[in-house]
Structures are given as C-alpha cells and as structure tokens.
Amino acid sequence: xxxxxxxxxxxxxxxxxxxxxxxxxxxxxxxxxxxxxxxxxxxxxxxxxxxxxxxxxxxxxxxxxxxxxxxxxxxxxxxxxxxxxxxxxxxxxxxxxxxxxxxxxxxxxxxxxxxxxxxxxxxxxxxxxxxxxxxxxxxxxxxxxxxxxxxxxxxxxxxxxxxxxxxxxxxxxxxxxxxxxxxxxxxxxxxxxxxxxxxxxxxxxxxxxxxxxxxxxxxxxxxxxxxxxxxxxxxxxxxxxxxxxxxxxxxxxxxxxxxxxxxxxxxxxxxxxxxxxxxxxxxxxxxxxxxxxxxxxxxxxxxxxxxxxxxxxxxxxxxxxxxxxxxxxxxxxxxxxxxxxxxxxxxxxxxxxxxxxxxxxxxxxxxxxxxxxxxxxxxxxxxxxxxxxxxxxxxxxxxxxxxxxxxxxxxxxxxxxxxxxxxxxxxxxxxxxxxxxxxxxxxxxxxxxxxxxxxxxxxxxxxxxxxxxxxxxxxxxxxxxxxxxxxxxxxxxxxxxxxxxxxxxxxxxxxxxxxxxxxxxxxxxxxxxxxxxxxxxxxxxxxxxxxxxxxxxxxxxxxxxxxxxxxxxxxxxxxxxxxxxxxxxxxxxxxxxxxxxxxxxxxxxxxxxxxxxxxxxxxxxxxxxxxxxxxxxxxxxxxxxxxxxxxxxxxxxxxxxxxxxxxxxxxxxxxxxxxxxxxxxxxxxx
Length: 686
Ligand code: ADP
Ligand code: MG
Fold this sequence. Notes:
By secondary structure, this protein is an alpha/beta fold. The strands form 4 sheets. A 7-stranded parallel β-sheet has the order 12-13-11-14-15-10-16, with helices on both faces. It has a 6-stranded parallel β-sheet with strand order 17-22-21-18-20-19, with helices on both faces. Strands 3-4-5-7-6 form a 5-stranded mixed barrel. Helix 5 crosses helix 6. Bound molecules: adenosine-5'-diphosphate and magnesium ion. Magnesium ion binds at residues 295-296, 417, 544.
C-alpha cells in the first residue's frame, strides 16, 4: 500500500480535485458521499471514439468522431423559441460540416478560427447539408477524446465532461484501494485485480478490458451479497434451537392411506421437511412447485407429523376462497385420523369464533386453517409447533414472523407456486432452505394450449359448449370488471351479457373483486359443487383454486397479463383425468404479445416460463427485489447475470465451508466488505 494513502471509504467527495461545495451536493444526490462511492459509480455505456472519420464518409444519424478545422463562427440572434444559436462551420480535407449549439454563448469563445478540433456527436444530413448538434469537442493536442469514452448517468448540474473529470480525478486514489478478495478466489475464478478493474471500467484501453473488469466487479458484488445471505442463514439455524419432533412418529401411515402414490419429488420434499422437523434447528423452508405439482399434500404430511407429536399446526392462505379450499382438502386428507381441524376467517361468526379461540388455547383443536384472521392478537395456541403459509408472495416476512410468534420457535413452511430458477431463489429467499417439486403427478394429460385472435374468438366458446355438454366446467377470464370507454379490452360484465344466450340452458355466473365476500364465496362454492358450468371472472380466481372437473380456461385479452400469471391461470385446469384446454385470445398484434402466446403454446414448464417472463418484462415488474430486503446492486443484475450468480454460489459455499465465520486472516477484508454492504440490515450480527 502506498504510504500517503487515505481511506477511500472515509474520505468525502470534496477531497477529489475539482469538487467544491456545489458539486458535492450534486454528487450526494446521486448517492456518492465518499471517494469509494465515486469509484464504484460505473458508466452506463461507452462510446468508441478511437476512429476518426472523414466528413465525406458520414451517413445520416451515425455517431462519429471527426477532426476538422474551424472556418467560421456565427451567432444568430433568435430562432424559434428565442434560443440563441451558435453555428461553427468546420472542414476537413474531404468536406464541410456545420456544428450547432443552442443557447450556448459560452462556446463562442471556445473556438479559434483556423484551428483543428475533434468533434464527437450524431450526424444529421438533410439536402446534402451535414450537421452535428451539441457535439463533445476538444482541441487536437488533447488525446482524451480519441478513446473509449465512458458515459455516466447524470444529474442536473453536472455535464458528462465534468463527470468524467471527477471520475478521472477520483482514480488518482486508486492505489489506496486494497485487494479484498482472497487470492484463492481470484485465481479459481480468473478474476482480475481490483485496481485494474476500477481503472478499466471507467477509462478502458479496449473493450476486452471492459469485459474483464465488468466480470470481476459483477462477480465481486454478487459474491459479497450471496456470502452475506448464507452467513445470515447459517447463523439463524445455528442459534435458534427449535422443537425436536420425535423420530418415533413417522408419516408412513398418512402416506399409505392417500388415494394416490406420491411423486418422487413429493417424497423428496417430505423427507427434507421431516429431517428439519426432527432436527433441533428451526425449520425455515420454502416449497417451490409448479401449479398442480401437489404441494398441499406435502404440507399435510408435515401437519400430520406435528399433530401426532402433540403439537398444533396452523395454515394461513391469502384469500378466503383458498383458505376454505385448504380446509376442505385437509379434512379429506385426515378423514381417517382423529385430528380436529377448524377454520377461521374474518367472516367467522362471533360465537363460533369464541369457541374456536377457546379450543385453540386449550389444545382441543389440533389444526387451524384460515386467512389473515389467524394472526390476530386474540388467537392463542396451547402448543404451536408448525406454521404453514401458502403462496408466499402475498405475505410479507413480517406476517410470517407474527405467526411464528404465536408459538415458541415453531417450524415454518412456506409454499409458493411462483416458480423461479433455483439460482435466483437462493438470493431472493436467502433466509430459507428450498425444496423444489419439479415433477407432475403421473397420468396428467398435457393441457392443450391454443392462441386465437379476436376474429376467431367464437371457436373458444364453441369449445366450451362442447365440453360443458359433456358435464365439464369452464372458466373465462377477462382483465376488466366492466367496460371502459377508452380501453379496447373485454370485461366480465359485457362478456356475461354477450354469452348468456349463447350458453342458454347452462348456468353461467360472474365473479370479481367488487362483489361482497359472501357473494364471492357463494358463487365459488357453487362452481366447486358443479352447479355453475361457466364462470366468467377477473383474476380473483388466479391462485390455488382446485376444481378437477373444470377442463377449459379461456383468457380474454391475454396480452394484458404477464406470462407467469397466464401460467397460473392455465394451472386452474388440467387437474383431473380429462383432457383440458387453454385458449388465449390475443387482442393485440404487437410482437411481444405474439411471442408470449407462442411460449405458452410451446411449454408448460413453469420454471422456463418464469425465465422467459423475466427476459421480456425485466426484473422490476417480476417482483421488486427491494421488498425482499436485498441491498441495491451497483453493477450486477440478478436476472441478467444468472450464470455468474451460479458460479458465485459455488464459490460462496467453498469459502464458508472452510471458514464459516470468515475469521481467517485471508478473509478479513472480504468480511469487512460484507459487513459494509449489510450494515443497515439489522439481523446481520455476524
Ligand atoms: P398445487 O401444488 O398447485 O398446490 P395441489 O396440492 O392443489 O397443487 O394438487 C393438485 C391436485 O393434484 C390435487 O387435486 C391433489 O389432490 C392432486 N395430487 C397431488 N399429488 C398427487 C399425486 N402424487 N398423484 C395424483 N394426484 C395428486
Ligand atoms: Mg396450492
């Protein structure tokens, strides 16, 4: 390390040459407080300015560097919106070009007639007149411009050139940055050193150098994050002694009496859960499985184990309909056993509620299933051993915590039908262990998926007619409840009007979020019982509903739904023995919606679909990573850099296996980096 070195993390941006009080405020607005922040604020892209082009070669709209002599400068008084305009006529040996600056009398003095300058900018050509508006420029002796130039995101009040100067000056402190990744990691993953990476990411010698630098910086950022998350998880598991469920109570009896044979994936998940339950650590496990993969029975096995070990269990679902359905399913699963199950939701009557609360407190009731109502303060358990939440993305971490506070460190199981690649899950659910059910029960017929355009919609309804005449049922999903004037989109109400006579002789009904809870429940109940043949609905039916007799899902204006959502909706059919169908009606001819429909036709693998969804929509919409408490990334992108991420995950495991708390001297600086990334996360008490 250099002798007169400073700590770049502690030195404020003012220490950088050229940064006064005004610039300081602006840099701070962009999140840069110290020198290290500046060094770690990366260009958004680069411009290749190494090749000078001749004016005669220029084509319209290209971004180029030229070298030309100034012939004349003129200020024009006022153009349209009263902006002052400066024209600079320049020439090289092949032709002439006009440079234009608006509102920029400052530039007037910047040029000297007969002198040569470099200009970098976009060319516009009309009627043989070549122009460049507001180019970057520099004098010819200044070699700076003939390089790969970084382009930074800007804030008002700092120009690109100023920003570059600041970055360059910050790089004067590069020798004060110490390598913090252990040598071993650098070697194993062929990473360049940090000094090289920071120099080249800002002012690269070549695009190859940019690649090398980027790889190192992305790797480093992901490694710090993943290692930190793994350490949190390890710590949680080590410290919190939970319930040790007895090995003497196997779940075999439960499994043997099921009306079907479990898939291997289900068996594996159950083994993992039972293992956790029998160990002293508190279980924090996520069951991830595609729609219809049979997560519920896996959860039921855990409940069985808990109850037979004389602990209570609670299952929380995000909606009344789903909770009701779970209640029914669990009752069926446990029919042959003496297990007392009750249901609690906002609509439970006061009298009944009091009975339930008493039964829970006395231990009379073994299993409680319900909505958010189960986390209310007055719900007290005698001896709670297992907490299950369904459809994780609807519950916050806090709600999960509130539920587990109702016992003394009960085991926790989370079920989600949002399939995301394992690599991503390891980050997004960093604090959970993961079981993946990646196999469908045998004998399921693949759902036939077909995309129609608006003109051919009638085919969808014909198909429904054909199916309901055989006693099957159908869903029609539309984006809106009622028609909206300015949207060319189908609504539940107008569809009902249109189709009522088409399906005459059959019972059809509508379901949407504006109905009262009791109305919704009644309609859903009738659909489940088979009294309703066609249910026209908004996406309220999206999650979890299980009606095996339903064989057609028609989705109107499918372009208005995300891929993952379409997949969820489609998962409402294909749950029984019969052939099922999903018809997507595409109301748009844009390319993305065509592509989506095509993906849906081609694959039924939720993990693949989720990946495609991410590619099309980008991560922000898929789910905000921030709500998961993950620090913001500077250069890495969890979705774009998934390959690097999986390499990083192997590395994080290797490091922590040999040094779980990063106590070795070689890992010292790396550990400090992790601490500084997580410094505002309360539970990183490493
Ligand atoms: P999801 O994973 O979407 O929550 P469910 O648990 O609702 O799926 O299961 C979907 C349907 O498949 C249910 O009707 C369930 O009884 C049935 N099922 C679950 N496991 C199996 C299996 N191994 N073989 C046959 N049917 C199964
Ligand atoms: Mg489910």
